[in-house]
Amino acid sequence: MKLAYFTSRYPAISHTFIMREIMALRERGITVETISQRSPGADDLLTPADRREYENTRYILPPSWGRMLAAHGRTLFTHPLRYFATLGFALTTRPGGFRDLLWHLFYFLEAVQLWDELRSRGVGHVHVHFIGPCATVAMIASRLGTLTYSITVHGPIVFYDVSKNLIAPKIERAAFAICISDFARAQVAAHVATKHWSKLHIAHCGVDTTRFRPDASRAAGSTPAGLGSTESAASDIPNRRREVLCVARLAPVKGVGVLIEAIARLADEIPALHCTLVGDGPERAQLERLAADLGVKDLITFAGATGQDDILAYYQQADVFALPSFAEGVPVVLMEAMATGVPAIATAVGGIGELIEHGVSGLIVPPGNVALLSGALRRVLTDDGLHARLAEGGRRKVVAEFEISDIGRQIAALFAEKLGGTPAGETAAPAPAPQREVHAPGA
């Protein structure tokens, strides 16, 4: 079986789950070509695997005008009627307004190049991660014929403006769609006709739980290095460092400022408290000023962007993982932390409740609530029994439902079912995981 993956930027430090998925499919004998809308930045190429994928990926933007003109010339010469029909489709299937008209003209230019590239490689199906502009390009390209597409829907930001993101027409024309959570599937189902609900399948993002696992000091039933029994916790607090970790892009939607305020509330109560923020983004300078203004600058380390080869060490050194986001799908960084045996605290947004069961596999607090976030941090950092239960429950959850090899098997089976064929190395396509029933909104 041969297909292509198409996304906005590949490889990318914030999209490592896409590479894991591609690798899992290749391990099951599926040939996966990679095409990216844009080239990655230097900060995205932090590991040998990143650089290897970069060398083997074709990029549409920034445009090579010679290559683009050649693609349009070939397509116009061989399929003139389809070419102009697709141009009309691109310009009429838009949200509205002159600006959107220009954007869809650009998408048409990209779509013809994508179609021409896939045809030259003998690829008849393209899978798109995210339902934004890349899915628009794939939808337009499919109008040229001989090409089908499918989409992985993440959310939640695309659900803020479903008409602008053309969610309904993209799903209606797609061969099928993969939703990373029940939350995402329900959001899509709310905006497409009932007859298209059968196209919506659940497949989580996943992590390698053989790599992301507790180190020797976090063996099952043990507490993190430096943490003692519940009886000794109070007296030992000033004498040992308590490490809070957050791995996130430093952007407003991640709510990192709420975590910094929570650290400030706990600073006097837990003198050995420290917080490491792994990631970079447009809010970094503002967050650094906030830490200084709150008097906790020395308690917070801004570690910057970190590649997958180095991220495991941060998890293994952490006592608790906190993700105070205002909006999320099902965050892969939460899976990584939980798989490594780090108790996780996250907010009640998006599909997080499908990963964290409050009090069993982690703690959930309302978004934006500094008092409740600081209280949850206090509980985990001072109650070793709770710490151990959440660490064990979190890893158990990820191993059971978010192991990448299992996810790869499920997605491979879905491609085999929908596109036909059996992946190399398989005697028969395994049956896809049972689909969860989607009810009409409000039912």
Topology:
Elements: E1 2-9, H1 16-27, E2 31-38, H2 48-55, E3 57-61, H3 65-78, H4 80-92, H5 98-120, E4 125-129, H6 133-142, E5 148-153, H7 167-173, E6 176-179, H8 182-189, E7 200-202, H9 230-236, E8 242-247, H10 256-266, E9 273-278, H11 284-293, E10 300-304, H12 308-317, E11 320-323, H13 332-339, E12 344-347, E13 363-365, H14 370-382, H15 384-401, H16 404-419
Parallel strand pairs: 1-2, 1-4, 2-3, 4-5, 5-6, 6-7, 8-9, 8-11, 9-10, 11-12, 12-13
Describe the structure.
The chain is of the alpha/beta class and 443 residues long. It has 2 domains: 2-206 and 403-419, 3-Layer(aba) Sandwich (Rossmann fold); 216-401, Glycogen Phosphorylase B (Rossmann fold, 3-Layer(aba) Sandwich), CATH 3.40.50. It has 16 helices and 13 strands. The protein has helices spanning 16-27, 48-55, 65-78, 80-92, 98-120, 133-142, 167-173, 182-189, 230-236, 256-266, 284-293, 308-317, 332-339, 370-382, 384-401, 404-419, and strands at 2-9, 31-38, 57-61, 125-129, 148-153, 176-179, 200-202, 242-247, 273-278, 300-304, 320-323, 344-347, 363-365. It has a 7-stranded parallel sheet with strand order 3-2-1-4-5-6-7, sandwiched between helices. Helix 7 links the parallel strand 5 and strand 6. Helix 4 packs antiparallel against helix 5. The longest helix has 23 residues, at 98-120. The chain is elongated, with a radius of gyration of 23 Å. The model is unreliable at 220-238 and 423-443 (pLDDT under 50).
Mean pLDDT: 90
In the CATH hierarchy, the architecture of the largest domain is 3-Layer(aba) Sandwich
Largest sheet properties: 7 strands, parallel
Tell me the fraction of residues in β-strands, as a range: 15-25%
Q: What is the CA-atom radius of gyration, in angstroms?
A: 23 Å
Judged by helices, strands and strand pairing, the structural class is alpha/beta
Here the CATH topology of the largest domain equals: Rossmann fold
**CATH class of the largest domain, anyone?**
Alpha Beta
Q: List the secondary-structure elements in sequence, H or E.
A: EHEHEHHHEHEHEHEHEHEHEHEHEEHHH
Number of individual domains = 2
* N/C terminus separation: 40 Å
**Total number of helices:** 16
Strands in their spatial order, largest beta sheet: 3-2-1-4-5-6-7
